[in-house]
Write a structure and sequence with these properties.
Layout (H helix, E strand, L loop, with lengths): L5 H10 L9 H6 L2 H23 L1 E6 L2 E9 L5 E5 L3 E5 L6 E10 L1 H9 L7 H36 L2 H24 L10 E4 L18 H19 L15 E6 L7 H13 L3 E4 L25 E3 L7 H8 L4 E3 L4 E5 L2 E5 L15 H21 L6 E3 L3 H4 L8 E4 L6 E4 L5 E4 L19 E8 L6 E9 L7 E6 L19 E3 L20
Parallel strand pairs: 3-5, 7-8, 8-9, 9-10, 12-13, 13-14, 14-16
Antiparallel strand pairs: 1-2, 2-5, 3-4, 4-6, 7-17, 11-12, 15-16, 15-20, 17-18, 18-19
Keywords: Hydrolase, Membrane, Metal-binding, Transmembrane, Transmembrane helix
GO molecular function, one term: metal ion binding
InterPro entries: Calcineurin-like_PHP (IPR004843), Metallo-depent_PP-like (IPR029052), Metallophosphoesterase_sf (IPR051158)
């Protein structure tokens, strides 16, 4: 037996070359080939994602807007457009492990002002937006390739500490991005623009994008609709500078006409918002605030005292004497009946309550005759006021049949009841304005085949003459609807009776179609005055 000194043996062991490869926890991975692939894929995906987060976004101008385009890892793919602070919309544009995010950062003041000063440029805005989106997409594709390769290579180098493995991770990341691009191209769905999914405030205003269901679905349409989105948002920003027809003087009296709330609590929020937005001086309610007029409903009336403006009210056929007594005790509320008048916000307003209390039509009623009789009593009170030197500026009745009897005794008379708007210049010069339902028909709206819209009007009256100068009709979508419209109207300049009597007076009448939920068959159509 040959004896080898211990020190010599130890020296030989130290001189033996160690096996190459990863150390520590990765040694087990290297010894198990079936584990290598998942670990490599994990490194590639994580590195590519980090690369996209750090450098994978592009700032690109799109028309008058500055946007940021980014690719994000995603299970379902698609496109997400963020319009801060309005919300976002999602398009199922493609199926791939990447999603395109477009953030609308801001509206560039110089470019938007250029569109305002040169409206003819709007016609070419769609082509400009299409070119901007295409240029941004090309730059984003190039930057994304660099981002994923750089991120995967850097992370591979940190994990494996071998350049060859790191480069392999970068190449695989580029291959995966290319495969995602091919998948997105193969599954591209131009119809997705027809069915966007809205979130945030945009869910309440999908009409910003426009109605695309009536147009052909192809890629060009997709680009055009994106351009339309930008165009419409630009117009929204500039809307206030393109409505010059009537600019009310700061001293103008602004009255808000509401009617037929019918126990809809949302109406109080709408009224309070309009009071704040329009600087309303007085609110005039032409009745049917309740539904059955019971004492149990009285608590619903409490917000009327805190709407930010004086509240003038007349009784409707769904409002009882109990309702009237409760409202009369609330501060800031003025209840009018039997031709009584009140001076409020620079106006003199007189009115009368509905002579009928018919919340469910379970008892015989006086019908049109009782309404006309109430209107005659109101007209007599108006004439007395004028003879006493305190002429009334606005008269209020619930039923249009009563309101028409005041023709010739007051410049303006307001009514409700029929749940649709009527604007009519009566033969003797009085303007009749009937408001729709500010409560959208109230709780009874769920019984209708179609939801009833919410109506209110802002009346602008000259502070000196106290004559109507203009009015804004505000229409909101009813239950389940999300539309909003505001239209401005101007009356005739001269509302005085011409020489020759009423035969020479021009008659103006506009009416929105609608159904009266309460009227009897005998009094279905509002009577048209004889010339």
């Amino acid at each position: 037996m040959v004896r080898v000194p211990f020190r010599a043996a130890a020296s030989r062991l130290r001189r033996r070359p160690r096996p190459a490869g990863p150390t520590g926890p990765l040694r087990a991975t290297a010894s198990r080939p079936w584990v290598r692939v998942p670990v490599l894929l994990l490194v590639v995906v994580a590195g590519a994602w980090l690369g996209l987060l750090v450098v994978g976004s592009v700032r690109a101008p799109v028309g008058p807007m500055d946007t940021t385009m980014t690719l994000r890892p995603s299970v379902s793919g698609g496109t997400k457009i963020n319009v801060s602070p309005l919300g976002a919309l999602r398009l199922d544009s493609h199926i791939a492990p990447v999603r395109l995010d477009v953030d609308v950062d801001q509206l560039d003041p110089e470019r938007s002002q250029a569109l305002v000063k040169h409206p003819e440029r709007l016609s070419g805005l769609q082509d400009e937006v299409t070119g901007d989106v295409a240029a941004g997409a090309r730059e984003l594709a190039l930057r994304s390739c660099v981002a994923v390769v750089t991120g995967a290579t850097a992370l591979g180098l940190v994990v494996y500490r071998r350049p060859r493995r790191a480069l392999a991770a970068g190449g695989l990341a580029l291959a995966l991005l290319a495969a995602s691009g091919v998948s997105a191209y193969a599954t591209w769905n131009p119809k997705s623009v027809l069915e966007p999914k809205f979130s945030g405030l945009l869910s309440s205003a999908p009409s910003v994008v426009g109605d695309a269901r009536s147009i052909v679905t192809d890629f060009d349409v997709y680009q055009q609709e994106l351009a339309r989105l930008v165009t419409n948002v630009t117009k929204l920003y500039d809307a206030t500078s393109t409505l010059p027809v009537y600019r009310p003087d700061p001293a103008t009296i602004r009255a808000l006409h509401v009617s037929d709330i019918h126990l809809n609590p949302a109406a109080w929020h709408i009224i309070a918002s309009l009071v704040e937005q329009y600087g309303i001086d007085v609110i005039i309610d032409s009745g049917d605030t309740m539904d059955h007029g019971t004492a149990a409903e009285n608590g619903f009336l409490d917000p009327a005292a805190d709407l930010g403006a004086p509240y003038v009210w007349v009784r409707g056929n769904h409002d009882s004497a109990v309702t009237q007594a409760y409202l009369a005790k609330l501060r800031n509320v003025h209840v009018l009946d039997e031709g009584g008048a009140v001076d409020v916000a620079g106006l003199r307003v007189a009115g009368t309550g509905d002579p009928q209390f018919t919340p469910d039509r379970s008892r015989p009623t006086g019908g049109k005759a009782s309404e006309r009789l109430a209107g005659m009593r109101l007209a007599s009170a108006l004439r007395d006021q004028r003879r006493a030197g305190t002429p009334v500026d606005i008269a209020v009745a619930h039923d249009p049949n009563a309101a028409r009897e005041t023709d010739g005794t007051v410049p303006l008379v307001l009514a409700g009841h029929v749940h649709h708007r009527v604007n009519e210049l009566l033969p003797l010069g009085t303007r009749l304005k009937v408001e729709g339902s500010t409560g959208g028909g109230g709780l009874r709206a769920v019984q209708n085949e179609k939801p009833e819209k919410v109506h209110a009007s802002v009346l602008y009256l000259d502070r000196t003459t106290r004559h109507l100068q203009a009015w804004d009709e505000i229409t909101l979508g009813g239950l389940g609807l999300t539309t909003a419209e505001v239209s401005r109207h101007l009356p005739e300049e001269n509302l005085e009776e011409p020489e020759g009597g009423p035969e020479g007076k021009p008659k103006e009448k506009t009416e929105e179609k609608g159904d009266d939920p309460d009227k009897e068959p005998a009094s279905s159509p509002p009577p048209t005055p004889s010339p």
